[in-house]
Design a protein that fits this description.
elongated, 10 helices, 8-stranded mixed β-sheet
């Protein structure tokens, strides 16, 4: 995503033992199997690991269609999440909508219209959520996600990986290096909804951390507008620490019109994982 640079505040240290234990470099693939990690070290069991585990490898040109599909579907899930789930975290907006409902009754004296007002407000929220997120998707699909090879595979210090399960691409993640502050940004992480709950997202995240350490980056950063608590728990489980949040973040495609401000709100969270001291 074309997001603003996260601020660097909190630190999480990774000890040397973890660094030394990391397998592979940028041009290597990673075998991962949560229930059969011992099999990965046993050549006789390699076939079983491939069948039952997840194989994380670098992006290839033939993956483009599946990668774009996973990315698109993952982002589109944020339409109802932003419209409805996010509202539960916004007491001020809830109060405003309740006030509008009461005002509708006093202005119209119609119980029917008053009862319909909350449904109308939710419908408008969904409309603006879909409108803004579609605009964001259009931007992403015509920039880095239009040519992953050129954007992530060719530049030094960046890479893009896919998670493959039973020969099918089921997850994606990218790393984009930034020379100005010697950090790498974790981007575009998404897992096919049919294959979640298998630890694939965590394996993809670890691959980015391994890449960052092997390439001597000082830290890994990320920014997210995810509403679901599970996404934030995932980052924390990988060692990331929340460094800041913004309620006034502007996604590409947002007009910031009064109606859009009223019916679409988004929270941008910044995370950082410190790999070593400068």
């Amino acid at each position: 995503m074309h997001l603003s640079s996260p601020e660097m505040v909190c630190e999480t240290k990774i000890v040397a033992d973890e660094h030394d234990a990391i397998p592979g470099t940028k041009k290597e693939s990673l075998m991962w199997s949560s229930p059969q990690s011992s099999a990965a070290q046993n050549p006789a069991a390699a076939k079983d690991v491939w069948k039952d585990g997840v194989f994380i490898r670098e992006f290839e040109r033939g993956d483009q269609e599946e990668v774009r599909r996973i990315f698109y579907e993952g982002i589109m899930e944020r339409v109802p999440n932003s419209a409805f789930r996010r509202l539960r975290q916004q007491p001020k907006t809830q109060f405003l909508y309740a006030l509008l409902t009461v005002m509708c009754f006093f202005m119209t004296k119609s119980f029917t219209l008053t009862c319909c007002t909350p449904l109308i407000l939710m419908g408008v929220r969904y409309y603006y959520s879909r409108k803004v997120i579609h605009s964001y998707l259009d931007c992403a699909l015509h920039t880095d996600m239009a040519d992953i090879e050129a954007y992530y595979m060719k530049p030094t210090g960046s890479c893009f990986w896919v998670a493959v399960l039973n020969g099918r691409v089921v997850g994606i993640v990218a790393a984009q290096g930034r020379e100005d502050d010697n950090t790498v940004e974790l981007r575009r992480m998404s897992v096919d909804s049919r294959y979640r709950g298998k630890g694939i997202a965590k394996a993809l995240g670890r691959r980015v951390l391994e890449f960052a350490m092997r390439n001597n980056y000082a830290a890994v950063v990320l920014g997210t507008t995810a509403v679901k608590l599970a996404a934030h728990k995932l980052y924390e489980s990988l060692g990331f620490r929340l460094t800041g949040q913004s309620e006034d973040y502007r996604l590409p495609g947002m007009s910031r019109s009064p109606l859009e401000r009223l019916f679409f709100q988004i929270r941008y969270s910044r995370y950082r994982l410190e790999l070593r001291e400068e």
